[in-house]
Amino acid sequence: MIVKTSFSLFCFTLNNTVYISYIFFMKELTLIIPAKFESESLPVFLNDIKNLNVKKKIVLDKNDTKTINSIKQFEEIDILFQEVQGYGSALIEGIKETDTKYFCIINADGSMDPNDVIKMYERITTKELDFIFASRYEKPLGGSDDDDVVTLIGNYFFTKIGNIFFSLKISDILFTFVMGNTSKFNKLNIKSRDFTFCVEFPIRAKRDGMIYETMPSYERSRIGGKKKVNPIVDGSLILIKMFKMFLFK
Ligand SMILES: Nc1nc2c(ncn2[C@@H]2O[C@H](COP(=O)(O)OP(=O)(O)O)[C@@H](O)[C@H]2O)c(=O)[nH]1
Ligand SMILES: [Mg+2]
User: Ligand 1: which residue has its CA nearest to atom 11?
Assistant: First the structure.
């Protein structure tokens, strides 16, 4: 008699460490990897996750030839050229084109720990959540090697606004290391094409009555290349977006 279980014992290596884990239908998951000028980080990151048994979709601009050339040797990945520029566009377009039940946003710079993808997957499937948001500020397991004073204060400030004005009950609004149910995400109809995506997503999820939780995660330093977020410009846009969403819904 064949007994079909909802999970299987899975053994794999990440960063040269052997992991044994119960993986629940990992084929139901697509990593959405936004990349802009990441020729230094992305090939290293893709090599780190080569044994992770999930679909991988890199979303980038078709003119970003340096990044595209840097990942030519990887076969089991999808590359999606975004139609509209911007970080939010890459995520919206990438998730729209996803055919698995779940997606996970994970950056191309290697700062988000792929081991947490497994923990998030186990949690979202067993608890039947719509979304799970990783947090750098849930101690003792959360933390960041990538934060500086400006981003630390900025994150604290924006997270407070989210919790006071939108009752989000999350501890890290800007991290955007998130796993979610693909069709539930598409129903949110998120419009932000830039980094304001980071706040529109949890606010819409809350307003639409989605079931979500948070989970601690340790952010690493980016592997190489430069950060694309400009704390002043993007911070101002995020603040304006939150005000608009509070005033005009
Ligand atoms: N496709 C795409 N990816 C982007 C864009 N802007 C940033 N990214 C990617 O989004 C991720 C987050 O950006 P990053 O510069 O690391 O900012 P951080 O989140 O503040 O560390 C990285 O993987 C970037 O390559 C964009 O306009 N288009
Ligand atoms: Mg980064």
Answer: 107
